[in-house]
Amino acid sequence: MAFLFAQFLTGLANASSLFLVASGLSLIFGVTRIVNFAHGSFYMLGAFIGVTLMELLPGHVGFWGAILLTGLAVGAIGAFVEMVVLRPIYRAPELFQLVATFGVILVIQDLALMIWGAEDRLGPRAPGLRGVWRIFGEPVPKYDIVIIAITPFILFALWYLITRTRVGVLVRAATQDREMVGALGVNQAWLFTGVFALGSALAGWGGALQLPKGGADLLMDFNIIGAVFVVVVIGGMGSLPGAFIAAVLISVLNVLGVTYLPQSTLVLMFVVMAVVLIIRPYGLLGREEVAGEHGQVGAPETPIRPYGTTGQMLVIALLALLAALPLFADRFLLILMIDMVVFALFAASLHFILGSGGLVSFGHAAFFGGGAYAAALLVFHTDTPMELAFLFAPLAAGLLALGIGWFCIRLTGVYFAMLTLAFSQLVWSLAFQWREVTRGDDGLVNIWPSPWLSGTVPYYYFTLALGIGGILVLRHIIHSPFGYALRAGRDSPRQAEAMGIDVKRIQFAAFALAGVMAGLAGGIFVFSKGSVFPTELEIAASFDALIVVFLGGVKTLAGGVVGAGFMTVAEDWLTRLEYWRLVLGLVIIAVVIIAPEGIVGSLRRLWTRLRGTDEEALQ
Amino acid sequence: MLEVEGIHSFYGKAEILRGLSFRIARGEVVALLGRNGAGKSTTMKSVMQLVRPRTGRVMFQDRDLVGAPAFRVAKSGIGYVPEDRRIFTDLTVMENLEVGRQPRREGAPEWTVDQLFDIFPNLAERRTNRGKHMSGGEQQMLTIARTLMGNPMLLLLDEPSEGIAPVIVEEMAETILKLKSEGLTVVISEQNLHFARAVADRAIIIEGGEKKFDGSFAELEAHPEIRDAYLSV
């Protein structure tokens, strides 16, 4: 019992810094509606800046002073990011900023690498709090107790700020209707910057406060972001008390999990989140997101037009070029092209549900990797012939999508995105931790195609036929009545339902179809590489696809495909550089700010302008 | 005080205002009349810069507002009460008023919470209630009170009589007259001619985004054909 209580205290102490980071994210989302993926980066910056300051400033005052200064510094960095990166794109489609924040992650990662180097830093112990206190005979670190004691004051200070001050009233009003707040004479730009700075400062404090328990390393940003999102979603986006309860819940469960069920640790919080969201779709203390409540953001969607003759000729010419490629290209280029087509099909399947369905999935890699694993497992364990195993990839991914979709489709917006993320994390941890079957991070190897496809050229044509075929099927479906119904459900679910469209069922079917196509891409992938590893199921893999779709352009059909081509080539080039993340991040941010319609959308705009039709420019 | 000169405003490709011009003098109460979709609300939003006129000028106290952010328009002394009220439903009455609060302004009537509670006694009783638990009429009063907290010189009231009970409409008319007696300049948009005549000194009729009539109610009565052509009575 005493041991259990000590465990509980450890969980509470861990919850403190998690709560700080999560409350910052929740605040930022509540007011700006930005899902700030870079929030983990501010946490990491907090840790690194904290370590540096603690080395400079000695003693008690130095330690706590360093923590205080760290928050202010990270807050200032946050304000800078908000003004430079986010301010120009508030009018862009709601989830577009997400990609920009992803660019910020990459930039901060490399900047941190440049400044602090690749070595992990051990956090200094808090002066005067090095030892343990015995509670019911169990040793509990003094620092843990101090943190547990501090946290309620932080919660109270935040609560006071939000509920009892003018700034808090304005923040809450802006959460609901920022345009009206502006019309009443409040400069929202500064309100947004202020909230972003405060949120970032909280993340920075979280990073600095955990130093004596942990340290600073370059993986902290991704390691915490999953947990932070889980906490915010379980608590309810925008709810501070919710974030606190969820942080305690997750941290305590985690500590208990480590002790009693070590293999559960990676999934535990995602299972909790999935359960909470299935029972309470808007989190414990969250409130329903009403569509259109925040006013129309950005320009209205233009209908998708079929290609003109020029467009069709271009596509045909491109296909002919691809078909003729083996005549003059070397093996290296063909392999790059196979990668590109695989990625294009994967991106096109995500684009299908995201662009046409309006469903932003953060976990699409589950189906790509799921398909790849399904085929690989059959080959690896039962020596199934490649032809049969390959068919199993889209089939298994489709079934997986049916299962996951059944839970996720009932949610909307950010909650949908987070639940898909949770499920993909579940799939990932299965692949990672169920070693007897999947061999964990050793991966499944020696998954080669049948002899007739083993050459690069035959496999290239195999890829081309299935990859392009899959993309064309998706394109065809978007132009079918099913596609119309899907888009109707995206633009106005209520009106679509009033017209007799079962929106949820259409979305469910689209989600499953996207899963099939992603699985197909995964199948082609696994036999081209001969192996599959859990990395194909990681959050980063899902984000790659998201970035590609946004870069290419959400509102254009070719967006996913063009974005995939761009990204494959860009990564191929950039990864040769030492600080390629920095460059890629800056490119992403630049595209988002300069060409918010993506590559294809911007090209189209340029094209219409060149032809002298003013129609688009009027928008 | 306010001079709107030849503004053209668009929603996407649809041209809603086609070269609209009018003037409002200090201390006047003017009614913008016209049917649904005539462009009354767009006119108000174009003054507030919530819709940006593509051409034309909106001069307020000799400064052109076109292109300024909405908060600057509000700070220059124009209060806006939107048609759909847009009160903050999760905030209490007191908090809603707090959002609207701005420092007092030279040449404009000054309002305190207590004075506003005198004018809108219902709000005083419900000061700690959240916006979502209030009736349509109470929400309408709250949105006006919230805007008055900014001590505006000019008040834009978009369809104040819409969707509220007849008894409250009468109260609303009295309130507007009270505001006028305090020295406030008011522009209301209305479909209800009876209500407009009760509170306004002058009528401007808009149809298809153009001005069709500008004059006193006596003149309007002398020309029933104008009323029949542009107003649904």
Report on this structure.
- The complex is a heterodimer of chains A (619) and B (233).
- Chain A is mainly α and 619 residues long.
- Helices cover 72% and strands 3% of the residues of chain A.
- Chain A has 2 domains: 13-219, no CATH class; 309-610, ABC transporter involved in vitamin B12 uptake, BtuC.
- Chain A contains 25 helices and 6 strands.
- In chain A, helix 2 (39-56) packs across helix 8 (188-209).
- The longest helix of chain A has 31 residues, at 2-32.
- Chain A starts with a helix and ends in a 9-residue tail after the last helix.
- Chain B has a single domain (2-230), classed as Rossmann fold (3-Layer(aba) Sandwich), CATH 3.40.50.300.
- Chain B has helices at residues 40-48, 70-75, 93-100, 113-119, 121-125, 136-148, 166-181, 193-199, 217-222, 224-230, and strands at 2-11, 14-24, 29-33, 55-60, 63-64, 78-81, 154-158, 185-190, 202-207, 210-215.
- Chain B has a 6-stranded mixed β-sheet with strand order 6-7-8-3-9-10, with helices on both faces. Chain B has a 4-stranded antiparallel β-sheet with strand order 2-1-4-5, with helices on one face.
- In chain B, a hairpin with a 2-residue loop joins strand 9 (202-207) and strand 10 (210-215).
- The longest helix of chain B is centred in the C-terminal third of the chain and has 16 residues, at 166-181.
- The two termini of chain B are 31 Å apart.
- The model of chain B has no long low-confidence stretch (mean pLDDT 91).
- The interface between A and B is medium-sized, with 24 and 28 residues.
